[in-house]
């Protein structure tokens, strides 16, 4: 078997995503308990609500992709009432993402899947969407923290 | 020549990045002229300043990578005094990024380069940083727009 040059390997893309998820975890931790559930800017969602969106995407999406199981997007899971509850869910999702990632052959990234019965795109585009959507919402969390007078973690900390 | 499965091709990664850049362009356009240069939340930088950072990274970074030319990061370029000036710089950078991307062999993405004499990482990690950093700051721009009572473009518009 010869090795062909790749833009990025499957392993490195998972490391990249989990690095971002590790930074998002630090942002959750940086919020005061009350502000995590109550604070926002400009009528936007709280960081707890944004985190619920991220939890409804990452692990359930990877599971759906690997099992080719088209299930509707569901953000109504109860993630608990404390930051500690959300962090525990976050860590559980970390393990699930690693598990399902390992089951997805590299050949499948270019295949189309109808994620949540709504997003019919190549799997790689769905994966980039998970990462970009998280970076996007986390960037909003940075503004919330700054507006609260709290120094966010460095962007390059993973 | 046999084709080996790839997580993403070089062409698709450029399309992905330029799709993000197209969305950032729409966010610049969405700001009222004055607010682009003056508005911010929580003592953060204005969206004009954030855009200057993005302009100081994208095209200059790709040029540095392709030419293996280690030049310090320089955000002091005069990008003009109007949104139209910034948009013209943005479009020029779009062409430059396409140009230099075409000159970078896929074999080089795993090679290390000391970007701006500061960030010694595999080139793919630097490229992901350009994209993620843009998504991060653009997410902040979304909060500025919401705080101004302006509806931002849809995140999936590219």
From TrEMBL, chains A, B:
Keywords: Metal-binding. It holds the Pfam family DinB. SUPFAM superfamilies: DinB/YfiT-like putative metalloenzymes. It comes from the Bacteria. Transmembrane segments: none annotated. Belongs to the DinB family. This is DinB family protein. It comes from Flavobacterium azooxidireducens. The lineage of its organism: Bacteria, Pseudomonadati, Bacteroidota, Flavobacteriia, Flavobacteriales.
């Amino acid at each position: 078997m010869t090795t062909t040059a790749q833009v990025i390997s499957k392993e490195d893309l998972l490391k990249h995503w989990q690095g971002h998820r590790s930074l998002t975890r630090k942002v959750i931790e940086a919020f005061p308990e009350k502000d995590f559930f109550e604070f926002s800017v400009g009528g936007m969602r709280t960081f707890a609500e944004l985190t619920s969106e991220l939890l409804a995407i990452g692990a359930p999406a990877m599971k759906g992709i690997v099992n080719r199981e088209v299930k509707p997007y569901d953000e109504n899971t109860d993630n608990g009432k404390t930051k500690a509850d959300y962090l525990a869910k976050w860590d559980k999702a970390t393990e699930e993402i690693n598990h399902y990632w390992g089951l997805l052959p590299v050949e499948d990234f270019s295949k189309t899947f109808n994620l949540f019965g709504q997003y019919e795109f190549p799997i790689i585009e769905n994966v980039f969407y998970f990462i970009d959507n998280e970076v996007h919402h986390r960037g909003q969390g940075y503004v919330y923290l700054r507006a609260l007078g709290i120094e966010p973690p460095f962007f390059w900390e993973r």
